[in-house]
Amino acid sequence: MKEFIVLITAFITTVLIVAVSSSISSHLWQGKPEVLPDTVEINIIFDETVREFGLKNKLSDSSLKSIFDLKSKSDLDLRLESFGITKEEIRSRTEKKQVIEAESSSKNWFKIPLKFSLWLIMLIVMFVLIVKKKINRKVRITFYGISVILFGIILGADP
Q1: Pick from 6, 108, 91: which is nearest to 44 by CA?
Q2: Rounded CA gap, 70 and 96, in Å?
Q3: What are the backbone angles phi and psi of residue 79, rounded to the nearest 5°?
Q4: Phi then psi for 49, rounded to 5 degrees?
Q5: Distances (CA, A) of 68 to 8, 43, 48, 59, 97
Q6: Region 84-111: what's the mean pLDDT?
Q7: 120 near 157, Cβ under 8 Å?
Q8: Crossing angle, helix 137-147 and helix 111-131, to 10 degrees?
């Protein structure tokens, strides 16, 4: 029974430490908040060109390329009606592209490669220790702790 109480106490303490530390860390890393783009009415006139559609709806050429699957710059001068897709499909593709761009712009692109690099280093170190048979209970628990602190608290959940 005493071991069970110690285990539960350790679990609760760990959860509290992680929660409080994560809150502090998130304020330290506080980047741009992920904000969905404002809902803007997308104006679609089949008689206009892709370029005109993009200018009217404030879309970049790369967005238009993705939305209409354009092959070359000259495709920007094609009329919307030539693509054989409905207004609803154009609206849906445009909204999806806007959401993806908003999400991408809100990511911390410094932290993501840093996190993957540190994971790779940690995995290589663990692999070397396993091959050399240097893993024991103390080393394993140390690496668990480092993983929780570094990847769960300091670097957070992105991605």
Answers
A1: 91
A2: 17
A3: -80, 150
A4: -85, 165
A5: 56, 15, 14, 12, 11
A6: 83
A7: no
A8: 170
Paired strand residues for 49: 79
Instruction: Output the 3-class SS for 30-53.
Output: CCCCCCCCCCCCCCCCCCCEHHHH
pLDDT tens figures, 107-140: 777 788 888 899 999 999 999 999 999 999 999 9
The residue whose two tokens read 């890393």 is 29
CA atoms of 11 and 13, how far apart (whole Å): 5
Token pair of 122 as six digits: 């940690």
Segments in the chain forming alpha helices (H): 2-28, 50-56, 61-68, 87-106, 111-131, 137-147
Q: What is the pTM of this model?
A: 0.50
